[in-house]
Fold these 3 entries.
Entry 1:
Amino acid sequence: MRKKFRHPVTLWGLAAVTLLLMAFPARGGVLLTVDEALRLAFPDCQITRKTVYLTRNQLAQAASLSDVETRSALVNPYVATKNGRIVGVAYFDVHTVRTLTETLMIVIDAENRIQRIEIIAFHEPREYLPRPAWLQQFAGQQLDDELALKRKIRNMTGATLTARAVTDAIRRVMALHLTLKGTLIP
């Protein structure tokens, strides 16, 4: 009969790894590629990526509409069409949640309402990741004073910074969309 041999270094190593995993919560990461997200949002559509450089007046207008700072004058809307009609426009917003970044795809329909939100990347700990049911409350919303936390938008218990970052990103993108509407986006 063979003796079972347990190496003390292996047991200590396992204990150390377990403690490290407990001390540092699992981080999120990239959840979808841009192409995957666009295919989910716009099946069977032709998608055209545009590049827009906002003027100072457009930046000021977007900031005024959203009450959120717009950090870049460069915007890349993805316009989806089907049978010659615009189905929606997708924007990708990268922002900091707490100390790490999150990337959202925000889709706006032809009536200037939020159609869909996808989390593309989330680098904060997973327990702060917004749940699909929480994101669903944005569907059908337009940019107004009620599109805010503690108004039409419920907060997320234990993840207030995430809720604020997502809501601000949506307000920023909606304002950019309305600013560009009629110029480069029909």
Entry 2:
Amino acid sequence: MRDKEKLWDYFILIARVLLAWTFLRYGYGKLMDNQFGVTESELNTALKELSPFRVSWYLFDMQPFKFIIGISQILCGILLLIHRTAILGAFMFIPIAFTILIMDITFMPSSMSITFAWRLSFYLILDFLILRHYKEKMKIIWDTVWNNVNTKYKFPIWTYFLLPIFAILLEILIALPKGLLTYFHII
């Protein structure tokens, strides 16, 4: 039994390293301009003649989008490598990988999207196995998030009916400085 647990620990460590390496590599590629973008001839092609994949790669090449995605992938990869932050990295991996999966399914040609969808789905399964491996820690997180979370004060029920009005007023308050600066031609 002990050997089985040790093998499982090694498997989880290998899965963490694979996911980390994958994200570190792709994140670095984005920061070094090795991913996304289109050729000069594609830039001179009418938009309607380009495939959705090429259009998406043109759009994904825009800054700060590419920079933020690259940094996010690198950060996630580093978190997965460090034992103390592996759970945080595994949580961070889910929305990033899932978004990439949806974009691949949406924009890639079907011959490519099937391969990438399979691969990303496998990565997501590995990620969920990592989270499951740390189920005792996950229970602590779950209990912390869902139990004993209350507001500091109890509010009367009628205050909840006024919340939409106050939310709209808060939205106006946020826009007020910009409106005044525009009105007085300061910006």
Entry 3:
Amino acid sequence: MTESGDAPLPDGVTRRSFDGEDRLATRGDPVYGEPTDGEWRLWDARRSKLGAMLELGMDTGLDGGETVLYLGAASGTTVSHVADVAGPTYAVEFAPRPARDLVDVAETRPNLFPLLKDARKPETYAHVVEASVDAVIQDVATRGQARVARLNRRFLADSGRLVAAIKARSEDVARDPGDVFEDVLESLRQDYEVLATESLAPFHEDHLAVVATPR
């Protein structure tokens, strides 16, 4: 795995003191009962794969202000933080129940656009998503995670970034996670140049963070 060092945080992401400990924070309305400090809300790395990447000092290539396509938005925990610091943010979620919560999150974030769609079928939302987004952020709990990233490559600018959290147990619960990750990376490399990878432990077990750029 590629060591990522201690990269600077994206604009709009800072550190604030919560219970005497410096933690990641963004400015926005709370979403999942997270602690707040005035206008700032804790970005809990144990509930967010992207938050864990930033907490670990990984260079995601995100600067803040990007146009983002977020795959696997669920009820809005992480994508709400993304929308706090990004530009237009398209949030794709397949399951109706969390998508309803996502719609509520978007009510106070006019740049957040919930899409009740399947990330495995990008043609169903191609008419909505901008043709050239700056970042695709992926956190989907499904088999074929590399395929999802490759299918959504169509939306990503040539200079853009794929920032993905690969879940070994979603691919194959019986296989060694390291072997699963090798297969996923091999598939990704057909359409992406992998810039960095890092385990998300101790925040998320059997997860691999991947940052890549389109080939």
